[in-house]
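FW: tagging you since you asked about this chain on Friday. Here's the raw sequence from the shared folder, copied in full. Didn't touch anything.
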Amino acid sequence: MPLPSKIRENKTANYLLYYIVPFTAAFLVLQFLIYHPFAENNKSFIWDLDGLNQHYPALVYYSRRLRDLLEGKGFPMVDFSIGMGFDTLTTLNYYAIGDPLTLLSVFGKAGSMEVIYRFLILFRIYLSGISFILYCIYRKKESFPSVVSALIYIFCGYVLFAGVRHPYFTNPFIYLPLLFIGIEFILRKQKPYLFIIMTFISALSNFYFFYMITIILVVYGVIRFYHIYYYSSKESASLLPIHSSGQDTPPAVSYTTESAALKGERNGSFWKSLIKTALRAGIFYLLGILMSGIILLPVIAAFFNNGRLNSGYHVNLLHYSLGYYAMLTGSFLAPNITPGFWNQCSFASVIPIAVFVVFRRKKYRELKLFFVLGTVCLMVPFIGYAMNGFSYVANRWMFGYCFLTAYLFAAVYEDIFRLNKTDKALLGIGTLIFGALGLLKPNGYVLYSFLILCVTTICILLLNTYKVSVHLQRAVVFILIFCNLGVNGYLTYSSKFGNYVEEFVDAGSADKTILNSAVGMIPAIQDTSFYRVETYGDKPLNEALTLNFHDVSGYYSIMDKRVSEYMKGLELLSQKAAYRFDNLDYRTVLSTLAGVKYLVTSNKSTAPYGYDLIKRQQIDGKSYYLFENQYALSLGYTYGQYITRDEYEKLSPLQKQEIMLKAVVLEKPLDYLKETKITEAAEDNSALKQSWFSSEELPVTLTCGEGMTLNGEYIDITDPGAKLTIQFNGLADSETYLGLEGFHINDTDYYAVNFKIKGEKEAAKLINVRSDRNNAYFGKEDYLINLGYGRSPMKYCELSFPQTGRFHISSIKVFGLPMNNYVQQVSERKKGELYHVNVQKNHVTGTAEVLKDSFICLTVPYSKGWRAYVNGVKTTPLQANVMYLALPVRAGTNEIELYYETPFLKAGAAVSVTGWFLFLCLILYDRIKRGKRGKI
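HL: got it, structure written out here
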């Protein structure tokens, strides 16, 4: 039955009917099958690691702030619930701010955020398919191959793995096809608006992926320009295919003639045309960047000040291991198989057949080049290193390769059913060879994928041999792909197979998981002053985002390098990566200097010196304790002397900790007060120690347990769980520290090992040691571990080795830090401390009364975004104690005011206004130009 004439003549209705509606229907059914294991196992889409610790808290926080903004409460540019007071925009851009889709979180409220979180993941995947279909429409691909290729695109292994693990990793799947269309417009001298807008959105959403997208766009643009310049005289330059009418089935495509502009471009030399096109594309690209400047400029500035840069990560950039290449072939189709480095393929079994056709037909020379280039890039570590911002090897640019493989099928679909006898024979042989290569690393999933490939190949060969209707042909292909993708997804997630679903939080339990931990004690704190809370126990990270309190932890991909330098210089055990610290290791001095007033813990023995128990509570059958620091400092406290950073860096980690109780550390000498020269205070270490420091190094005796041998600086472990006992005569009324220097696993095959350290007190701690091949390695190989405070002397501790191997430790030392001077030293800092502290959005005020000229150190992470006023006079904030902020103050009463503005925000806003103005001028110019043409 013919379609009504109105529908036949309406292109939009045609595209909806033949492309969007079938895809939507297939998506709804397929996503239900693929993600059914989550419902089957009562699991949410929140990954138990970064999902619960980063993505979910960031979305909850952003949702709350968006509602505040709509209610006229403003938006904070700095927030003390983000780390210790990090920039809101630059810290959370990576997770939420800037992504247009996360604006939908404004509709989420308490108890419904998990639903919003899940919806956004599925919605991103759906939009990725729509975006892919639009590209296929532009390239004049018929509806059926476009729809099934879109399904292949959005349910590939990379999306199955990363789409739920890191929700925003799906965003490039949405942006890339639309940017490709935009590039096509520019190559054919059509309107650049789509390219400009998508560049703007991509840059706004996530600078990290925008960098990768940019490189892919350059490669795509150059190759497509070459192809259009030399080979596309028969191609259409129109945006959409023109369908013949009178059909119920997806209509055939007829082509328009090439644009006059494109013909004119071809009259010049290739290189001249290429340069002109590149300049034109570059201008429009820069325009999109300018429009995004209000977010992009501050984020870029923060990125280049990130503690994650220059990590010391080491890996062979010329080639991967043999195991990687052995796994690569099998992982191309098999679920739950990956050679590592984010190489997640698991494509539908029709893809190798499409690749085969590409290499058997000369007309697909362009696709052949794309595929060879993309595959080679997966085989060279340097590409993964460069595409990941030269930080570590990770093929997170896989979204580009996934697009390519899916599009291959759409492009060659008709030719798959035009195989000659030679093609059929080679296809059969190729299938067997593919299976043999995959079995180099035999695995049940590889066998499954090979069987599916065999079934698919047989069906394709039969469809080539026997004449069947188009409907039957498409039905067979659809069933093959639909079942293949559905089973791939089920095998990936199902608890009976890949069991990926086990890594996700139980449905409806995200908020409960956060509250049913030590932080569940925080509502019991009745205190209106500004304070920080240190936590210990079974807790996720970044919970301050959801519970809105002030923490001393942070886990964010972009974190100021000063914070990382502070933690690393003190050899803090709790610094797990350059972008993550869990607490301050409950060191009495550091916690007090950070403004910690309360400790919530699941273990009473972790309480530092001077902490009184004020509440015990049972949460979900487990005991938690709330302690108050009796010597807590305010947000700001004063120093009468300072040392320079150079002097500070000459000290041991424990001495650095001690000196910050006596003198503020400044980056360079000032005329304001006389610099204190610690190294000139004594002629030898003994006198230096007596003058400034209380800590003592204690003699140790090492006793090896069974399955352990000491060989110089190496410890050989033959039995998992072997223990090294470290004996010493501790000091009374002191904190005891274990120092491990040169502790690394670089000589082993391990990427990371968690060693357990346990003292006489019941609390045990884990030492997270990463090899220099681990992408989270940041050069840390020295650890100073707080074994806790004790009134009586400690006698020993035990270091457990959970795995066999040869581990390197240059030295093992034990230190005692007496607390006899601590109270007096804190009292000195309290003289002139900040009172009447008022912390509001982007604004901090307080009063300090000092007896003499001093420096007031505020436990606010230093940033150039802070403006300071002392008694109304603008004062330049100083970087102090490595990561904090200090101000010089005169004797008497000092009114302190701090105002925060995201660095480069105003400059970025000016850039954005300029960009949008130029964009509007471009549109106006184009309309005027078209108007003149119309008159002519």
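FW: The chain is about 45% helix and 20% strand.
HL: agreed, and Residues 233-262 have pLDDT under 50 and may be disordered.
FW: great, closing this out.
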